[in-house]
Every structure is written in structure tokens, then in C-alpha cells.
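Continuing from the previous page of notes. For each protein in this section, the sequence appears first, followed by its C-alpha cells. Read the first protein now.
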Amino acid sequence: MRLDPVFAAPGRFWKGNIHTHSTLSDGMRGPAEVCATYREGGYDFVALTDHFQAKYGFPVADTRGFRTDKFTTIIGAEVHAPATSVGEIWHILAVGLPLDFAPTGEAETGPQLAARCLAAGAFVALPHPGWYGLTTGDAATIPGAHAVEIYNHTSAVLCDRGDGAYLVDQLHAEGRRVSVIAVDDAHFGCADWFGAWLMVKAEANEPEPLLEALKAGHFYATQGPSIEAVLWGEDSVEVHCSPASAVMVLGRGAAASKSLAPLQTRVVLPLTPRVKNGGYGRVVVVDAAGRHAWANPAWFG
């Protein structure tokens, strides 16, 4: 069996949140307090991604002063421009931006802004698609996006629209090789932090290795469960995880294999012809509390 590239990559796993806000835009805590919240909460890194808009002065938070020998930060922002297919302003998560990233141009569109973020070296993701009705047509206009938020905690807490799996599954079914991320998107106006995070496999807890690992898809997303290893065979996949009530591999459409049992930590699932013929499979682990962990997809053929 072949160890999934995420788990075969060199280094170790680092815990981080890459979508959150401060008083530089519409958050309720200052940048120093946000970073302290995550550092004291046991996180290894955070990206402060304030809303990059004129009304806030186009902030790209300089969080370098909040780094320690055990905690780091990645520079980023949530950028905006007109307009999605349903007339909403674009929300585009850009992690790894330069501090001098130029303000959005008056005539700049969302796809153009995303392209500029990518050219600047950022990891670009489509955030909270369920919250504002992002479509596959919208996603197609940003072909370079690295990831989609499969879960956004603030959107789940505030309006029950935190689930992005519908868009993830449609993009994967179309052959779009995007990663899946889970984030807080914390604004600190309610209990919207520590709800979801990434475990990123990198050789060092430093901005550049973390950013490269994000771009390579060397991570899994979680609300709590851990995925310790995924091994792919010709006709099965083996998953090692923290105690789980459900372990599954999902394919195109309704294709799936699953194991439902209490406290399982090692599961071998068949890769049925229906799963394999869909071209991809992604592993999901669910614990007894209903919390999920999501692996990035493996592509067949």
C-alpha cells in the first residue's frame, strides 16, 4: 500500500488557523490579542486575514512582532471585489501576501484580484461558499485557487451555513484538484474560535515552509479528530485515526465506502469500482461527538 503524500511528506504536523479577523477590520479583538488567543490555545501558527477593503484602509496585518520561538504567523488578508454570479461581493482568502500588497483597483474584478494574489505568492482559497451561495461557475473563474473551505466555524455558529462540502464535491467531480480546509473565521463577537483548524505537515514551524506545505496540500482539516495515516492500495484504503464512530471514503456523486462502529482507530475500506471510476476519493473521520476531520482527495488513474 502507498502512504498518502500528506503523511509521507517530511517534517511533523503543526496546528494552525488561517482565517481570522481583528479590529483592523470588523473583528472585536486587536491583532496582539488575536495572536495571543491562538498561541495560548495551543496553536502553532495563525494567519490574521482582515478584510482588505477601502473602508478599513486596505489592511495587511503585520503580525511579525507576535512570533515567538514556538509560535509563528503568516501574513494574509481576505480580499474583496465585485461580484459573484448572485451579485455578492467576492470573498477571497489569500495567505502569504506581501505586506505592501497594492490596494484593490477601482475596476478590478474578483478573478483579477485572485490572480494578483496568486502572482504575489499567496495560497488562495474560496472561503465560506455556503454562507453566500458560491457556485461552481463562480469557482471556475478562479482556476488557480488552491482550496475551498469545507467548513467555516463562524458561518456555522451565526447562520447554519458553515458547510462547503457541496462545492467541494462538485469541483472534485469535475476533476478540479482543490484541497479542503476548515477554519474559524473568528471575529470574536460570539464563541466563534477554536472550532476548526488545519494540521499542516512541514519541516519547520516557520512561514515559508508552512506556506509551501499549504500549496502542496500537505495537511488535513479537522474539528477535533486526528488522522494519523492514510494508505492507498489498488482496491482498498487503510485509515489510522483517533477513536471514531464513522470512517468513510467518498467519491463522485453518491459513491462511498464506510465503516460505522464505536471507538475504531484502524479501518480498511474497500475502493469499490464505483468509487474508483469517479476518479478520486477523500477520507472523512467522524468522532462520537459528531466532529469531523477531512483529508485531501487522492486522485486515481
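Done with the first. The second protein uses the same format. Note its length before scrolling.
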Amino acid sequence: MKLDVLPTRTGGAAENMAADFMLLQRYPREGPARYRHYEWRSPAFTFGYSQKISFVRSQLPPGEAFDLCRRPTGGGIVDHRDDWTYCLVIPRGHPFEEARATQSYRAIHEALAGALGGVGVPAALKPVAGSAAAGEPGGPAGVCFERAEIYDVIHAQSGAKIAGGAQKRNKRGLLFQGSVWKPAAGGGSAAWEKFGEDFVLRLGAALGAQPAETPWPDFSEEEMEGLVEQYSSPDWMEFR
């Protein structure tokens, strides 16, 4: 099995969400898993598919300009202003795709925590579900990086949440959208390029796949524009 490693791209919130969904729905090659790390054109927040827009707005910083988009995956509100963002798509029929959500979540985050450890960040997986233990940072449910849940990546010393993710499964496979909060991992002191390279290798090993740099797929421009328009629309943003 191959793991297609796609070029890094920079986009707005709706563009990035549309691109991730297209990697799940319209990828021209059915066999390989596909992975991308991407960046943000401007300050941005995304939020989970099932979250209520009234709650989301109550948690956003007042008086600041930023891009906002509902994700196709679940999970909570994610602040992308200082994060390291990635997407992984696992095709239908792969053992990861068929596993329970907690199992795939754990395996991906084990690879991520190992790559963080390789650049000197003491990372571990949160071992139990429930509210934050005594001494651990905690915050409102539904807001990422303020509260760690089971198998999120945390700082082994401070307990601060470093990384989380959200999933979507359909007949095409599994879409995993993940985010690493740089300040909790040491910010600019971490070697992010080295981390990214090691993370890809560890993901490949976990999937039993050979990573290979791959050109960006030739998606239908009309379909992509339509999906960006959908993700930018009030109907999508405010349907809950």
C-alpha cells in the first residue's frame, strides 16, 4: 500500500475544508492512503459538523477578524492561528478504516507523539476519558486545546493538550483532520520540518504503507469551486 504525501498548500478556511473533503470523495486513485500538511492564509477557526453556531460564537475571541468554517468532521472548535494542521484519508477496506474510532485515533496520535518526542517534545497520550484530573489544564467541552480527551496528545510534564483530531467515515473511507497546537509543544523551539518528516514515516509504518511524494490531484475546478462556495455559505455555517 502507498501513502501519497501531497504538497503543502495555503488556503482560506472554506478552501482547506473543501480540499480535505475532495481528498476523501474524489481522489483519482482508489488504492493509496493520502496525507497533506497545510497552512492558513489568514487567522482562522474551524468547528465540528454537529456543533451549534450559537455556542461557537460564544467561544470566539471578540473584536478580532478571522476566517470561520464548519468542518465536515466532528470535534470541537479549533484555533488555527498558531497550529500545525494536517489531513489523512484512509481508503475503504483498510484495517484502520474498519477499526473503531478510538483505535484509529489512538494509532494516529501514537505516531504523532513519537514524532514530537523525536524533536525533544515530551509528548504522551491521555490514557483515560473524562474530565481533567487534578493539576491538568481543563476548559469547556467542545473547545479544542482547552481540554484533553482520551488519546489526545498531551505534554507529559504540564498535562497541556498538544494535539487533537476529528474523523468522518463514509462509503469512500475515513477522513481524519488533525491539529497540533504549537505553543503547547514549545512553539518556535520545536523543529517543525523535522517533526513533519518523521510523522509521515511513522504514519506510513502504522498503516503498513510506503510514503511517496505525490503531485496534487487534478480535481474538477467547477466542483471544487462549488464546494468552497457551499462551505462559505450561511446555510452551511448556521444549519445548527
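What the second structure shows: The longest helix spans residues 101-118. Residues 120 and 190 are 7 Å apart (CA to CA). We return to this in next week's lecture.
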